[in-house]
Amino acid sequence: MRKVLEVGVLLSSERSLPRLLEKILSCAMELARCDAGTLYLLDGDALRFKIMRNDTMGVRQGGDGRDPELPPVPMEPGNVCALALLEERTIRIADVYNCPDHDFSGPRRYDAQTGYRTQSMLVVPMRSREGKRLGVIQLLNAMDEDGQVCAFSEEMVLVLESIASQAAITILNVRYLKQVRSLLDSFVELTSRAIDERTPYNVAHSRRMAACGGAFWDCLAERTGDRERFSRERKEELRMSTLLHDIGKMTTPLEVMDKAERLSPLQKEALRARLEKIGLLARIARLEGRMSDTEEAETARRLKEAGAFIEEISRAGFLTDEKLAGLEELRPLAYIDADGREQPWLTGEELEMLSIRKGTLSAEERRVMEDHVTVTDKLLEPLDFPEELSHVRPWAAAHHELLDGRGYPNHLKGEEIPLEVRVLTILDIFDAMVADDRPYKRGMAPEKALSILKNRAEKDGDLDAGLVNLFIESGCWQAFYNKREERTHEA
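-> structure tokens emitted (491 positions)
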């Protein structure tokens, strides 16, 4: 009884199905003091081999995630293991060679090939509380105190049926956990795809980061030798945090996310119409004698140059001092409208947007964009993550924090930022630089992006220098980014 209770505790602590099945068979063999055993699970209309043990023959198959390479047993009454499950009863046989009731051609072939002698057999079905058929435990050759093969005792039948009952419950629980986890993973993957594909300028961003991050995490584990710190469980938390880090962008307006130029499409159209209007007014003035042919031609030339210049700086990733100075030269330009009032070529709002030094977003638009991390935190807050994924929410919401405190939303500094978040930040910045699906820039070559990461870590101090160096040295990014066509960034 003590051993049965110990088995119950042992089984309830295992979450890996292959290891659980191995423990079930090992415990059953130990309790029954037998030489060999097989555990089958029902799969459709057949029983599939999952674990095989034979101490005399030194056979140990299954338990490592790979099933024994044997054909499945059809669910037909002629097969004793199938019959036990079909009729939901334990079958006890003293000597399979002297039992005409069942087909033992399989054990006989095995014995002929290996020289083993199958004698006593005990077949115990595994069923759920609701009567769902799960599988079979088949034990061979019980041993007496002298080590001789004997029949399985009647008392042992009840013991093993108890073990089979516990095993069935545990198998179902492990399967349910796996199904729930699989559902969670599918939901996270679906959400990640929805975020990335909401706009054509962000396709596969999170998934690229997750794949590259997993490879980098493995490199960290190998380089440091700290398998506990860089465990598989922490790696999974990082992966899920990466896939969900931009979930807050679900609420970011597309006109901000997709803003490829400093001027919005409406602003560009209004400006284009205005410049065309100025040209028409100049032509009317010439026809009415208020402007010479030379003056009209000069106006047309300046309008053409201004239009081309505005188009150029509206698309530029970065504006030099020279470009900003050229923009200032357009500020005083004005024309007289049809009502005789003086009007500027460029409105104050247009000049303000065109004067953005880097990127395409105004200060207000950037605030809206940056708010996605706060929204990420809010969206993930109601989710009841299991303990092993308890860091997903805080890590995902902190991926824009920087070591020098200039990040957002909480301006964390130094050791306040977990190592996993530092990794996530490096991945996010690197992908943003090399990605060729952003509206405001062309993707740069990976080597240049790595150089910028290194410069930020060593000179600016906002990234973890040790992690950046390991990221560069690991080369883990090559499989995901180095196959792209080499590009140069306008900056």
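The beta strands are 34-43, 46-54, 59-61, 73-74, 91-93, 121-127, 133-143, 149-150, 334-336, 342-344.
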